[in-house]
Structures are given as C-alpha cells and as structure tokens.
Amino acid sequence: MEHEILITRLFNDYLGGAGTAILNAVGQHAENAARPWTNWITMQILVAAIIVVLFAMLKPRLSMENPGAAQHIFEAVYNFIRGEAHTNIPHHGDKYIAFCGAIFIFVLFSNLIGLIPGLESPTMFPYVPVGLALASFLYYNIMGVKAQGGGKYLAHFAGPIPAMAPLMFPIEIISNLARPLSLSIRLYANMYAGEQVTLLFLTLTYFIAPVAFMGLHVFVALLQAYVFMLLTMLYVGGAVAHEAH
What we know:
The protein is mainly alpha-helical. It has one domain. The chain has eight helices and no strands. Helix 2 crosses helix 4 and helix 4 runs antiparallel to helix 8.
C-alpha cells in the first residue's frame, strides 16, 4: 500500500465509507475497503478545490478601473491562451479557449502543487495523465464531428487521394488512437522523473542544490502544462480544419 499523505489520511479517516460507496456505485472495489482513498485521487480533489476557490475569490474583485495583481496575472494567462488558440486553431479559436484553458490551468496547478511539503503532484501518477489525455481525445473528436458532421469527419481520415484511402484510413485511425497514449506518457514521465529528482536532492542537502532543482521543477511543470494544452489545440485545429470549407 502506498504511503498516505496527510490529506489522504484525513479522507480515509472521515470519508472512508463514502469513498467505498462511490467505488461500489461505479462497479469498482478498493484494495482496502476501509481506506479506499489514494493520494492521486485526493490530490486531484484538492487541486480542483483550490482552482474553484481561487476563481470564486477573484471574480468579485475584477475591476476595469483598478485591477489588482491577481487580475493582471490571470488576464496575461488568458491573453496567452487566446493567442495560442488563434494561432493553432485558425477558424473560431475563441470557441475552444474554455476547454484548453481549463486543461492548462489544471495541469499546471497539478504539476506545481507537489512543491508544497507534504503534498504530491497528481500528474506523477499514470491514472491522472491518462484521464486528462482521454478527455482531450474525446473533446477534439466530438468538436470535429460537431464542426463537420460524422460522415465528413470520418472521411478526412481517408486522405485527399481516393485511391490511397484503403491504406490511409487504418494508418490515420491508429495514429489518432495513439495520441492519448503519447499525451499520457509525456506528462507522466516528465512529472514523475522531476518529482523523484527533486526529492533525491532534498535528501542530500538543504541549501543551493534544492533551490536549483526546485526551479527546474517549476520550469518543467510550466513546460508540460503548455505542451499538453498546445497539442490539444493542434488536435482540435486538425479536427475542425474543414469547417471553413
């Protein structure tokens, strides 16, 4: 059994029955029915709660005349995401900002929260990157069908040359199905490796080296959140590319 961090211990101590009931409701069974909550589940809940509380606190403070520091930060984040959407989804990029922005912020917060002592990054567990990748996969395919219609969307997997369709169609389908695997492995491997390196150097010294590697961890966290969002945008852009036609 994995080591329980404090928040997971609290969930198991006070909400163990609720966790078991939820798992039973979806046809799953915990290895330990008395302690069904795991670190990666509780950390996802914590990240989601932090994001909700943060934006709930920020909303009433929004001001056109006297914006605060937090508003400036999130406006910069929004403008950055909007610019990326317009670059990578040429037609109607604004329609997809909400999902892509939510993916970016959730992955970023999930990556960074592991820097807080006593907490862990949920993205260093494979289940979380897989779930995020599947959400991205479903989203861009649904947007493609919505933009083009089911028949036209499937037709673009056959390629532009009808004679090559029998060869191109299975290749494109396999390539499409490989995308969530690629997204999952990239995020999981980088965050797991970064977490382990940071923890290793924290055990060796408490001065210069940890600061340097924590800075590297922040850079990797930002980069991986951006890459995950960017690839999602590219997939969406490819899925809806024929909308203008």
